[in-house]
Each structure stands twice: as structure tokens, then as C-alpha cells.
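Record type: monomer structure entry
Structure origin: computed from sequence
Chain ID: A
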Amino acid sequence: MIDFALLKNEVEKIGINLDQYGFDRFDAYAERLVRWNNHVNLTAITAPDDIVIKHFADSLYILKYVQMSKAQKLIDIGTGAGFPGLPLLIAESELEVDFVDSVGKKLAFIKDVLRNSGLVASVIHNRAEELGKDEEYREKYDYAVARAVAPLNVLCEYGMPLVKPGGLFISLKGSTGKQELKQAENAIKILGGELLRFDEYTLSNGDERSIIIVRKISHTPTKYPRKSKKISTRPL
């Protein structure tokens, strides 16, 4: 379905070398994404080249900035159709990944892709702010990642309680990243983080993107995360 030459060019620009299994897994992922999208609202992006650039390459840009080692734990918050977690898992198949979403049908899609691709990961039907209060998940992850889930000052309270001290909270944003980062400075500090890196880049189709990487330097105070309504109506 997808143009392997395009995908190869995109991932090599990021510094990733895929084997044939990787190419085949991305192809199967794209095919299932389009098929499932006929009855489950997963994405508005269904043209094969757009899937490669706007979904796969965009998700994989994280690996240009962060070297993820095998057996490290990653949680993908509000994963939806699996972005960015599934492309990261295809590229780094020994990562231990948990996909989190509150919509069961989207998690069923993730399970289908995992099963078809021979990849191993966990899916969790819950909300991130509930997991952040659960000792099984709180501060247990090396990485928490999110893409286009909520404004950054809100997203930080969903994600940072799940990251262990020394770990990273990584948010992929569009052209509003710099503005959102400024609005989230207080939240990052309160939740125990410090900005490690902010960068802006342009996808090969011209879309502007940004990446925000926050290092967890101290434990998140136990009062956080708050209830969902309070997080969204009274962000830190």
C-alpha cells in the first residue's frame, strides 16, 4: 500500500535504518488504518503518502532527539490510532510499550495491528489521570509520549506523574509549540520537571512541527494529577 522508497527516505532523514520486517509492518499498519477507519473514527489522513509523512515520519522524529534503549518502558498517552507509540515500537521493537486510551474501539485497532505485526505491547483502557494515581503506574516509565492530545499545560499533568525521576516526558506539537511551552512553564516546574529541549522542524510536505522534551528531576507532588475536569478548567 505505501511507497517503500518514500518511507525509506523519510526514516533515513531521521537517522533510522529499517529492516524488511519494519517496512512490512508499516505497510500492514497503514493498510489496517485505512480499513478500520471505514467504521471507526481513527484519522482524517488516509492517503498513503500522507500516512507515511504526517503519521509515521512525524511520530518517528522523536528518535532524532532521544535514543531509546531496549527494555525501557514507554507509555503512549491518548494513543488514538497508535501515534506516536506504534511507529516507535516498530522502529525499536524491544521497547516495553503501554498504549493508553479511554476509547475501547481505538484500543481494539491497536491490538489488531500488534497481533498482525507480531509485536508485543500492552493496551490499557483508562484515562491517564487515573493511572497517575495508581501505584502500579505512577512514576514507573522511562518515557511518556503524547501527540496532539491536549494543550501542553494540561497534557503535562496527564503525563508527568507517570514518568520516573530521570525519565522524559515528550510532546509532539504543531506550529503552536512555542506558545504552548510558554504557557506550560509553571506546570512543568510544579510537576517536577525541567525543559531539556525544544525544537521546531518541518515535515517534507511543508507542515510545521515542534517537539518538547521535559526531564523529570524530582518526584511529582502526591496531589497531582487532579481530577480531569479540574485539570482542563484550571490548568497549572
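Annotation 1: The two ends are 44 Å apart (CA to CA).
Annotation 2: The longest strand covers residues 163-173.
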